[in-house]
Amino acid sequence: MFGKRLVLFELFGFKVQADMSWLFLALLVTWSLAQGLFPAFYPGLPPATYWKMGVIGMIGLFFSLVLHELSHALVARHYGLSIKGITLFIFGGVAEMEEEPDSAKTEFLMAIAGPIASLALAAGFHGLTLAGAAQGVPDSVLAVAGYLAFINVVLAVFNLVPAFPLDGGRALRAALWYWKGDLRWATRLASRCGQVFGIVLISLGVLSVLTGDFIGGMWLSLIGLFLRGAASASYTQLITRQAFEGEPVSRFMTLDPVTVSLELSVESLIEDYIYGYHYDLFPVVDGPRLVGLVSTRQVREVPRAEWARARVADILVPCGPDNTIGPRADAVKALSVMRRGGNSRLMVADGDRLLGVIALKDLLEFLGLKMDLERLE
Ligand SMILES: [Zn+2]
């Protein structure tokens, strides 16, 4: 989901990082505060002051988002769920969960923690605005505090819309889950709401563009698109997880895969193996011992002139947790390893003994059959 990320600092043991796309949001917010909102509500200040207010407002928004996500993360940790970290990106922030909550109550509390934090921040900033006005604090300060009170209310309200995977949608899913005890049904309903809300946002965005608000309209449409995609992806993810949970890797692996030896030339690897079998990955063995793999990725690094001279031994990738998995591991684990390493095949090995190869293609085929036979949709 994310591109290049910058680790900013650590908060209560959570890594806070910013995706490069956050920069775009930061610039947009600063610019629209300094050029639009502040001059409209507090006219007559020097332009440099508006820019300073814009920057401080943007930093305030940054910390508001971080605190919102932090409260999700703290509740998650309280219930024993591990959180990879907090990441800010173009559409706000996300506390990245490594695993899904295992009970409706945990999910509900985790979901509402964020909006509650935002409302508390809003109340705090509103209080500051009132106290500041009574003390005769300058307009520029009041404006920023007022904006932060407002934006935190917006964050709370927007996130409480019952559209999965927004917080409100998660809370809705938790309530449905608690009610009927059926996580899949609950997720399907909540994610439908998410998709519908996404479409509503896209339509509103298009309408705004047509009536002249180009940036605001584009923004709404993009958020709608993102939400719609995220809603259907989360449902697919759940179906996948439920289909493969408890199924060992050994059930899906291809036995006796074609292997290559260390001495094989790259030329013969390409001609006889890659073009011969149409696989993109071959386990490399040294006698009975599995030592690593070669794939088209490594072959591409070798200049054509070297093909005849280079050996598999020169380019092999040693076995590691990104390309090798045990036969008793869960198939869900295999999927997440594939995703992490960007590989569509993994070697299945018991120690240094090669047992087979597991391919994404086979897992997807099984998923398709299972969805078909069990009428999952
Ligand atoms: Zn949230």
Give a short summary of the structure.
This protein has helices at 20-41, 47-78, 104-135, 139-160, 167-180, 183-210, 214-244, 266-277, 296-300, 312-315, 331-341, 360-373; strands at residues 5-11, 14-19, 83-89, 92-97, 254-255, 260-261, 281-286, 289-295, 317-318, 324-325, 345-350, 353-359.
Q: What ligand molecules are bound, each kind once?
A: zinc ion
Count of spatially separate domains: 2
Category from helices, strands and their pairing: alpha/beta
Largest sheet: 4 strands, mixed
Order of helices and strands: EEHHEEHHHHHEEHEEHHEEHEEH
Strand elements, count? 12
- Total helical elements: 12
Gross geometry = elongated
Average per-residue pLDDT, rounded, comes to: 88
Sequence stretches where pLDDT stays below 50 over 5 or more residues: none
Assess the beta-strand content as a share of residues. 15-25%
